């Protein structure tokens, strides 16, 4: 940041601090002076305008010190000093025995020091968020507001009247006989505060409709705050029923809170101006100011009633200041936790992540819980883990902000990288946050190692199963086509030999050998059938799946099988056939369906098998039986997944995805 920007930033901080301090000091000074001279009532809406608007403006100046929006929001900071200067002039003129130095300046400022919001309330919606007037209607409206407000300010400075806070103190620069300046002042005030604000709100609505993305969301929030302010102004004008002054003051207070609250939400939720940390401090300052002001007023009032002017009253006030000083840390911690999670407590981050990871059933699921929990614990926009074994992500990175990367290690090896998205381009990063994320990265490394082991085991299991099924297919072919026919032929030869032998005893022995050989052939056929479903070798997988649906009148069965399902690996064929057979049997027996559809197709190198019926579905509290477990195990054996989707009265869909690798 350039030197000029630093100067502007510190100037904005000084103005906001001076304005806030002035508003806080106005309350006791007004109460003290009201006991001695006539002063106008003190409106809480003015104090809110003089504190909240400048504080939010200072926060904007932290990120964009050259943005006109921040300086417009700083204009109401004059409210506090304006009251204090007018009270100073009133004390000098009406209470003090001798005039105090510079009271004329205070009296003059007390006549016009409130005009800052004539400029601020209509111009902020026109310039938000980037301080540019990009269309002719906005430029025309802005120039009209500045011109009318400037004329009104000049008329207010020269009008022949008393100061607003203390009517008994005259304007030292007031021009006698120019009472018509009052009309000019009120006309300009109405034109800017009502007409200008309404025009700015209409233009804001039109801008919001044309905007997209984050800018649209930012404008929508300001539109809500601007409309709230306009409605509060008009509700005071259009209300025909006489209402208490406090009610009108509260209505005005709510309306004036709308724009700064909307700007704060746009900064927090949509990353505007990169001011999250400073905004957190501003919130703490505002809360503590309100707390101290309220407690102070209560204690002072109580001290006056209990022991006016005594040591007890002084001790009560000192005790209030001590509570406020000690309470700052508690309030700051609560606000930081709301905005940034547990960024200042690494152990809380690790504990939060541990609680979220514990219920996971497998490493991949645990890793997803880990990145979700880390993002939640630190209020991050984006977290992700990347490794050859597992890749998960939570949220999305902020455009242009990027992320920080942390290596994840286990057993001395780097197994992946944990990426933590920045909240903004200038996102501050503390040592405690660094320590917390590094600790979580070590846990992620352990999970990645476990995920790699699980993947290796699954891959080895799939290879073993594939080799086993291929060997079974080869053995079945050899036994069925080679040894089986050979043994059957030998049995026929023995039968022929027995008929040719004249010796009855020898012929009986040969027939006994023949019968034993035929029994062996039968046993061999049983073994062959157990090695692999015969229908797969006879008809192939497509024919075997169609055969499953043959012979049923109810439900009406239909099939759609991709021609690419021929010549798949033996393990995939067996798993697909077994899953389809079990699913079709369950639908026929239990679903009371009128229609059943079986589809099989190839998607890249994955066989997608689905069986859908229109039956009664599976009851919600149904306990999965052997059939469902068997289908899931069949799919898992070849590295696939099985999904069962059902709802009462809407049928059931069994869908299996079975990877086949390179087809044979």
Description:
There is one protein chain. It is elongated and about 160 Å long. The strands form two sheets. The protein has a five-stranded mixed sheet with strand order 5-6-7-9-8. The chain has 664 residues and is of the alpha+beta class. The protein is built from 19 helices and nine strands. Its EC number is 2.7.13.3. The chain crosses the membrane at residues 12-30, 42-61, 68-85, 105-128, 140-160, 180-206, 218-238, 250-268, 280-299, 305-325. Keywords: 4Fe-4S, ATP-binding, Cytoplasm, Iron, Iron-sulfur, Kinase, Membrane, Metal-binding, Nucleotide-binding, Phosphoprotein, Transferase, Transmembrane, Transmembrane helix, Two-component regulatory system. It comes from Streptomyces gottesmaniae. It is found in: Cytoplasm.
How much β-strand is present in the residues?
A: 5-15%
> Which H/E pattern describes the elements?
HHHHHHHHHHHHHHEEEEHHHEHEEHEE
How many E strands? 9
How would a textbook summarize the main sheet?
Answer: 5 strands, mixed
Write out the strand line-up for the largest beta sheet, numbering strands in chain order. 5-6-7-9-8
The residue-averaged pLDDT reads 78
Q: Identify the overall geometry.
A: elongated
Distance between the termini: 65 Å
- The gyration radius over C-alpha positions equals 42 Å
Unreliable spans are 239-244, 273-285
Helicity level:
55-70%
Based on helices, strands and strand pairing, what is the structural class?
Answer: alpha+beta
Number of helices: 19
């Amino acid at each position: 940041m350039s030197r000029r920007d630093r100067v502007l930033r510190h100037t904005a901080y000084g103005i906001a601090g001076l304005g806030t301090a002035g508003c806080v000091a106005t309350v006791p000074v007004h109460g003290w002076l009201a006991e001695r001279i006539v002063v106008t009532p003190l409106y809480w809406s003015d104090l809110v305008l003089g504190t909240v608007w400048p504080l939010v403006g200072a926060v904007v100046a932290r990120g964009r010190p050259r943005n006109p929006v921040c300086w417009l929001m700083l204009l109401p900071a004059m409210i506090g000093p304006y009251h204090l200067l007018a009270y100073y002039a009133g004390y000098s003129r009406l209470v003090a025995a001798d005039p105090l130095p510079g009271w004329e300046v205070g009296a003059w400022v007390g006549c016009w020091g409130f005009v800052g919001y004539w400029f601020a309330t209509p111009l902020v919606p026109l310039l938000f968020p980037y301080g540019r007037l990009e269309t002719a209607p906005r430029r025309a409206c802005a120039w009209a507001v500045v011109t009318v407000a400037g004329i009104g300010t000049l008329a207010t400075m020269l009008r022949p009247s008393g100061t607003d806070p203390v009517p008994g103190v005259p304007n030292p620069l007031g021009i006698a006989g120019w009472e018509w300046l009052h009309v000019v002042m009120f006309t300009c005030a109405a034109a800017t505060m009502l007409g200008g604000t309404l025009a700015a709100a209409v233009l804001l609505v039109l801008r919001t409709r044309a905007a997209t993305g984050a800018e649209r969301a930012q404008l929508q929030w300001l539109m809500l705050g601007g409309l709230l302010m306009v409605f509060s102004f008009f509700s005071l004008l259009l209300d025909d029923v006489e209402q208490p002054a406090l009610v009108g003051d509260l209505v005005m207070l709510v309306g004036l809170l709308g724009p700064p609250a909307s700007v704060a939400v746009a900064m927090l939720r949509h990353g505007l101006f990169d001011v999250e940390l400073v905004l957190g401090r501003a919130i703490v300052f505002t809360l503590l100011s309100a707390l101290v002001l309220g407690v102070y007023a209560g204690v002072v009032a109580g001290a006056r009633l209990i022991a006016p002017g005594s040591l007890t009253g002084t001790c009560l006030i000192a005790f209030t200041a001590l509570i406020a000083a000690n309470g700052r840390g508690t309030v700051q911690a609560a606000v930081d936790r709301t905005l940034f999670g547990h960024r200042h407590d690494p152990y809380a981050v690790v504990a939060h992540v541990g609680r979220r990871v514990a219920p996971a059933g497998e490493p991949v699921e645990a890793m997803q819980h880990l990145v979700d929990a880390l993002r939640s614990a630190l209020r991050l926009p984006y977290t992700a883990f990347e490794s050859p074994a597992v890749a998960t992500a939570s949220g999305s990175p902020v455009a242009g902000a990027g992320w920080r990367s942390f290596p994840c290690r286990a057993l001395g090896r780097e197994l992946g990288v944990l990426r933590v998205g920045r909240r903004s381009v200038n996102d501050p990063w503390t040592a405690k946050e660094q320590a917390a994320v590094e600790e979580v990265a070590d846990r992620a490394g352990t999970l990645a190692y476990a995920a790699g082991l699980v993947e290796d085991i699954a891959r080895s299991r799939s290879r073993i199963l594939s080799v086993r099924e291929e060997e079974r297919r080869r053995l079945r072919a050899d036994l069925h086509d080679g040894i089986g026919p050979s043994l059957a032929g030998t049995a026929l030869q023995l039968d022929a030999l027995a008929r040719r032998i004249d010796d009855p005893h020898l012929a009986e022995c040969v027939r006994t050998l023949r019968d034993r050989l035929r029994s062996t052939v039968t046993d061999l056929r049983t073994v062959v059938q157990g090695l692999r479903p015969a229908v797969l070798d006879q008809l192939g997988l497509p024919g075997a799946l169609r055969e499953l649906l043959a012979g049923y009148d109810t439900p009406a069965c239909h099939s759609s099988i991709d021609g690419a399902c021929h010549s798949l690996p033996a393990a995939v064929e067996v798993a697909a056939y077994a899953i389809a057979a079990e699913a079709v049997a369950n639908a026929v027996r239990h679903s009371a369906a009128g229609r059943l559809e079986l589809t099989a197709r190839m998607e890249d190198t994955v066989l997608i098998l689905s069986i859908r019926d229109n039956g009664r579905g599976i009851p919600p509290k149904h306990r999965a039986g052997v059939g469902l477990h068997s289908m899931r195990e069949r799919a898992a054996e070849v590295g696939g997944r099985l999904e069962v989707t059902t709802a009462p009265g809407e049928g059931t869909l069994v869908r299996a995805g079975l990877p086949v690798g390179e087809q044979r």
